[in-house]
């Protein structure tokens, strides 16, 4: 059998209070797994607290703990990429360090994997730590995203998932910097037909969410632009509608002057038209500029990250 080893990749950014309880919970679940080898790869995504120190404490007593120490905060998607690059097992489980991805699901994931499922997704049926406003905005965003995206990205499927080695090898072929992991997998494999396990996300054990408004907006933009050129087409439609609006306004002004015999100074009309057209132009330029900016970043071909891979016996620096 080839399905005998598992790597659990745990992304952590300023999660010092969650590392020890997460490790304890994971070790409890690992004991029941019918596998020859299980490694825990903690990816320290440039944390500024004691996250790295907590991981090093675990490594001193457990050789199964590996650490990918990113030299700065490269973001959640790159952190998962780094962990995947160093994983050498037959499958990889991706999860976050905030204890909102329950380790108790891992044995069921492994069981389904060994029965033949190569990808096991999870579906978050509720998030106890999220506000009602956040849930509503998230639902609206995903509906809008899937409306203009050519790749469907499910709303409630987080990055907590098990992926077989053959798909890990496939994912490693992607080299783009601005990546959305769940989108890459959706692009390759229609996720509606995949095995999915449901769970309720508990509140965070300690700390607060690291996805502030700026990071959330950046992820939203990446999610849209990475998998679709529809915004560019929408800008064309917007330009056409603006032209039609301008033509209609011109017809109205001519009719008002020559047919209705009610000429007006037109100051308000001119200012409204100029402001409207100017706003549309800025929106279109912003959309085009976003795509050009991504091209600019991609053609540089810089390494995705710089990291140390720390084990109990070796300490090597490596770039990807």
Description:
Strands 7-5-6-4-1-2-3-8-9 form a nine-stranded mixed sheet, with helices on both faces. It has ten helices and nine strands. It is an alpha/beta fold. It has helices at residues 16-30, 51-61, 76-86, 106-114, 132-148, 165-171, 181-188, 213-226, 230-258, 267-299; strands at residues 5-12, 37-45, 65-70, 91-96, 119-127, 161-164, 195-201, 306-310, 315-319. It is 48% helix and 18% strand. The longest helix is centred in the C-terminal third of the chain and has 33 residues, at 267-299. The chain has two domains: 5-131 and 157-217 and 303-319, Spore Coat Polysaccharide Biosynthesis Protein SpsA, Chain A, CATH 3.90.550.10; 230-299.
Describe the structure using short key phrases:
9 strands; 48% helix; 320 residues; nine-stranded mixed β-sheet; disordered C terminus; Spore Coat Polysaccharide Biosynthesis Protein SpsA, Chain A; 2 domains; elongated; 10 helices; alpha/beta
